[in-house]
Amino acid sequence: MSKKQTIQIGDCILDSNVVSKLLDQFAHRIYVDKYQEQLSSLLQQDRGVTRTGLTLDEFFRVNVGSGKIFAGYSGPCKDANIKAQEDSIGHLAKDLNDVVGGIVHGATMWAFIKEAHLSAVRNNMLSIGVMPWQGVIDLLAVKGQLGADFPKMDYLAISGESYEDHANLFAQKLDYLTLLGGRAGALAEANSAKRYSKPVITLVLDNEQDLAFQNFQGGSWYTRNPEEAAKFVRYNLTPNQRLFNGKHVSVHDFDKMTIDKIRLTFLGNSGRKTDLHRHRQILDQLLMGISPAVSQKVEGVSGGTYLGGVQAFYDSCGFMHINRSGIMSRKGIGYKLADVDHLIAYGPEWGSESDVTKRMSDVAVVLGGGGQTEAEVEMLAIHGGRAGVGVPIIVIDDPIVGNWSSKRSFQHPNVHYFGSGELSLAASYLNDTIQRISCERSDVFR
To answer: How buried is 205 (Cβ within 10 angstroms: 0-12 exposed, 13-18 middle, 19+ buried)?
Structure first.
């Protein structure tokens, strides 16, 4: 038998006609990185507009139309809770039917891969398989278990020899990845997605000790709740809303990562009618007063949603190259998330996050807000900070922004009121405070 009639996969030598029939059974169109001559019978079949089999160059032309995105799945195929995988993937596909237009998976039809494919079919999405040539062996093993009426994938791309080799192609095709756990293959796919700046949602269904969970670092969102994962995608990853490129971290990890930082907390308006231009004028002047010698030690902290004064604060921090971290209730996932480096979602109800904000603050700036802001100022002034003895607070009273501070109804040694005509004084006080905290930290760690 000539080389043109055989295909070698690892130690296995397969008849090219067997491989052609197998691939034709599983996909409407096939894209391959080699063996075009051996698969010529498959590649030359006329299927309407184009051929069944094409090169990988053509694979990148596959799209899901305007305004929709590709969702990817990686996870365990062995020792997995398939029912939990099926329920979660089905829930995500149904909830995101108007957002996701195609599902990218590993093609071999084991466990979660089969469920991802079928959920695409049920919800009228494109089913796109990406696998290495080793996957052909797995398809041969499983084909007899699926039945004659098993629906085909819309597209199947084959690249690389063994698992992990296909990870780059896999990651390039999707817009975000949902990681369900798994071992080396899933870990390679997650790391590749990260390299291509594709958001990774860590969805823990069963075994949090899976190799992929334990070794993958840098996911955008971590949750045990498929509904929460769907909200994150809908409100933050669609083409016209994509803003959050940071990392969702636990309270413990945030504390550890910013332990040497001076956490500057912002409190104020979070409504959509906020005068953003006026907020930026004031906040820019305040933050520009921070000495370059200590500005890189500052971590800007506020809410997690991109609204009102919070939006202006993060924009000002970004302008000054100050790191940003958002702390919010998990209910905030249903809103557009702020452009922050770290996001801490804590507690089930609005206000649940207040205790975290209280403990994580070193100094605070207040602009705008009403009764709730005043209550938060009182909390921070009396009980805020790492030692729980209160933090210094700068309150700006501006007639255009308008807030409770014009009454100056709450008086405390830690609260310092400034009118908007005294911004140079406020900026100087903020800088002196940050410098003092920095010196005190240096003395402690010396």
So the answer is: buried
- The residues, ordered by sequence, that sit 6+ positions from 245 with a Cβ below 8 Å of its Cβ are 197, 199, 220, 339
pLDDT digits (tens, 9 = 90+) for 260-274: 999 999 998 776 667
For residue 99, what pLDDT is reported? 92
Phi, psi of 327, rounded to the nearest 5 degrees = -120, 125
Strands 50-51 and 46-47: antiparallel
189-209 pLDDT, tens per residue?
999 999 998 999 999 987 777
The count of domains in the chain is 2
Do 170 and 275 fall into the same domain? no
Q: Which of 197, 215, 236 is the last residue of a domain?
A: 236
Does residue 242 form part of some domain? no
pLDDT (0 to 100) of residue 51: 47
Residues 15 and 88 reside in one and the same domain: yes
What mean pLDDT do residues 160-186 have?
Answer: 90
Same domain for 92 and 157, yes or no, is yes
Is 338 buried (19+), middle (13-18) or exposed (0-12) by CB count in 10 A? buried
| pTM metric for this prediction | 0.79
- The chain-wide mean pLDDT, for the chain, equals 87
**Residues 23-41: what's their mean pLDDT?**
85
Domain that holds residue 418: 247-445
| Spatial distance between the Cα atoms of 300 and 8, rounded to a whole number of angstroms | 56
Calpha distance 17→69 (Å, rounded):
35
- 267 and 219 both lie in a single domain: no
- The Cα 132–Cα 15 span in angstroms is 18
**Which of the four pLDDT bands, split at 50, 70 and 90, describes residue 1?**
very low
With respect to residue 341, please indicate whether it lies within any of the assigned structural domains.
Answer: yes
Domain end marker among 177, 203, 236: 236
Tokens of 342: 């770290």
Q: What is the C-alpha separation between 103 and 97, in angstroms, rounded?
A: 11
Question: Six-digit token pair at 277?
Answer: 């231009």
For residue 159, is pLDDT > 60?
Answer: yes
Identify which of 24, 337, 276 has the alpha carbon closest to the alpha carbon of residue 156. Answer: 24
| In 5-123, alpha helices (H) | 16-26, 40-43, 56-59, 82-95, 111-122
Alpha-carbon distances of 395 from 76, 323, 416, rounded to whole Å? 52, 22, 6
**What tokens were used for 323?**
């790191």
CATH number at residue 437: 3.40.50.450
User: Looking at the structure, do residues 401 and 255 belong to the same domain, yes or no?
Assistant: yes
